């Protein structure tokens, strides 16, 4: 009998997730779409920045090698 009672108790995390899911469901589709697009734009912007770093490093290295004073 103890097992049956223990199985019905929900974890606080599950209750929290369920509540958040209800809140998202209440939002209208345009708001959800805008939120999704904003998150995706933010992700691609970060990816673009990290994608340009190696090219920038090569450019700086070339500049230093070309314009460095002869020693």
UniProtKB/TrEMBL annotation:
<protein>
    <recommendedName>
        <fullName>Triple QxxK/R motif-containing protein</fullName>
    </recommendedName>
</protein>
<keyword id="KW-0472">Membrane</keyword>
<dbReference type="GO" id="GO:0005789">
    <property type="term" value="C:endoplasmic reticulum membrane"/>
</dbReference>
<keyword id="KW-1133">Transmembrane helix</keyword>
<comment type="similarity">
    <text>Belongs to the TRIQK family.</text>
</comment>
<keyword id="KW-0812">Transmembrane</keyword>
<keyword id="KW-0256">Endoplasmic reticulum</keyword>
<dbReference type="InterPro" id="IPR024842">
    <property type="entry name" value="TRIQK"/>
</dbReference>
<dbReference type="Pfam" id="PF15168">
    <property type="entry name" value="TRIQK"/>
</dbReference>
């Amino acid at each position: 009998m103890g097992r049956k009672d223990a199985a019905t108790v929900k974890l606080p995390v599950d209750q929290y997730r369920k509540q958040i899911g209800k809140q998202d469901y209440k939002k209208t589709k345009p708001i959800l779409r805008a939120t999704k697009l904003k998150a995706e734009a933010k992700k691609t912007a970060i990816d673009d920045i990290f994608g340009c770093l190696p090219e920038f490093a090569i450019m700086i290295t070339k500049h230093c090698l070309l314009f460095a004073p002869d020693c």
